[in-house]
Design goal:
Layout (H helix, E strand, L loop, with lengths): L1 H13 L1 E5 L6 E2 L15 E5 L2 E10 L12 E8 L4 E5 L13 E12 L4 E10 L4 H9 L11
Antiparallel strand pairs: 1-2, 1-3, 4-5, 4-7, 5-6, 7-8
The structure holds zinc ion.
The site of zinc ion has 9 residues, from loops.
Length: 152
């Protein structure tokens, strides 16, 4: 029982779960039980791939107190490959290296620490999809509108 509960909790923590509209098949995140496209009821759970690209971003230098130890950090609007936009912190990247259209993937990271009780709050962040140097160089010289080849 304990093991089963652990795995269930873990699966929820590591997946980005939203909803899929049974009427028009729109993918919805965050879950809101109503489809923003056709405005019908949509309660079918849908697990997103966690992949997307940077749509816009900005650096945060003066965050709320509980995020202070992570400052400065970069918050981005991510366009998921399934369509929805998600706001999330970026991780494992310098702000100077962040670009619009950069491929990113979801990772689970410590989001903040609750100092009083010592609890550690986990959440999702996004990091760059690592490309080898050859692909990185090829991409730098490619016109911006060309799709980035999928990693093998
Ligand atoms: Zn719909």
């Amino acid at each position: 029982m304990e093991v089963a509960r652990f795995w269930r909790t873990k699966a929820q923590r590591y997946q980005l779960v939203g909803e899929e509209c049974p009427h028009c098949k729109s993918k919805i995140f965050p879950p809101r039980d109503v489809c923003p496209t056709c405005e019908k009821e949509a309660k079918t759970p849908f697990a997103f791939s966690g992949r997307g690209e940077v749509y816009s971003f900005s650096a945060v230098y003066n965050p709320p107190a509980e995020f202070d130890k992570f400052a400065p950090y970069t918050v981005a609007l991510i366009r998921l490959v399934e369509g929805p936009l998600v706001t999330a912190q970026l991780t494992d990247v310098d702000e100077a290296d962040v670009r619009i259209g950069m491929p990113v993937e979801m990772v689970t990271r410590v989001l903040r620490e609750d100092g009083e009780r010592g609890n550690i709050i986990y959440g999702y962040k996004f990091r760059p999809v690592l490309l080898d140097h050859g692909r990185e160089a090829a991409r730098a010289h490619a016109p911006a509108h060309q799709p980035v080849p999928a990693m093998a």
